[in-house]
Amino acid sequence: MSVKQDHGRFKDIVKGKIKENFKKYITQGEMIGKREKEYVKIPVPQIEIPRFKYGPKDSGGVGQGDGQPGEAVDGKGQGDQKAGDKPGEHELEVDVTFDELADILGEQLGLPNIQPRGFKETPTEKYKVKGMAPVGPDSLRHFKASYKEALKRSIMSNTYDPDDPVIVPIRKDYRYRSVRKMPSPESNAVVIYMMDVSGSMGGEQKEIVRLESFWINTWLKKHYKGLQTRFIIHDAAAREVDEQTFFSTSESGGTLISSAYNLCKQIIDEEYPVSEWNIYPFHFSDGDNWSTDDTRYCMEILKKHILPKSNMFGYGQVESKYGSGQFYKDLEKEFPEDEIMTLSQIANRDAIIQSIKDFLGKGK
Fold this sequence. Notes:
alpha/beta, Rossmann fold, 7-stranded mixed sheet, two-stranded antiparallel ribbon, 23% strand, elongated
């Protein structure tokens, strides 16, 4: 078996181990801190590769040694350690690309592929081989095409000898691959995460949001090579922050959800024209808002400014003993059958899997 086949078989084994422990990877954050640009390090149970071990020569073999035919084999060992009751802890870190991780996520959750809106494809230039040219760099010289030119020249000049068919290309016979710039459409997307960081959203609630956003991003990266991510935190006021601040900030003030929605609207209007971008806003909260007046204002912003420009708007309500959960009910009442608005209730870490299916199951 070739090295390439061995490597492919090993990757299949790793993927199988990830699938076996998929729920653990979804609900635990150990691998999120081990991200690189193109891949993530995942701890998997130690994979033991079986192999033959040969003993010394002339040491006997199968059926040799003391004993009589039919005598039972004594299976007692000579060790002085007592038998344990727990498995050994053996783990191996393997590199898995985000595309491979997304494929596993889609397979395990039965997610449909996302269909980007056609008019949001931006042209990018890529190089493509298009035909042959008589000039070019040596690295692009095409041997077969050059040989054909030399053969044609030899035949046309009556120098070709079938009994001694030696063909030597000269400079004018050389042919080179012609590389041209070709416009290639590529879909871009932005994910705008918004989160309530008021006192009622504790550390466990933020960790649930952190885990869920990682898997949402993993799936979207599979479909959009130009994915960007923005982060907004809010209590009674909203501000844009980096990813680390997003998941570590705690405030003690009230909650004014419209502040986040207004900032989201501003970012979209100023930086992400709907003709060029696929837009995915997500808002996570425990469902409290300052007043019914502000809730009505939120609905107005969503209807007029955010939903018409979004591929999908996701609201995830993370259960908290301090939160009322009222905002979920308000959205459910205001947008009962809206195709863009997607609602999800997240009671605990075990509910993350279903919440991801709620958000990504529509294929938008």
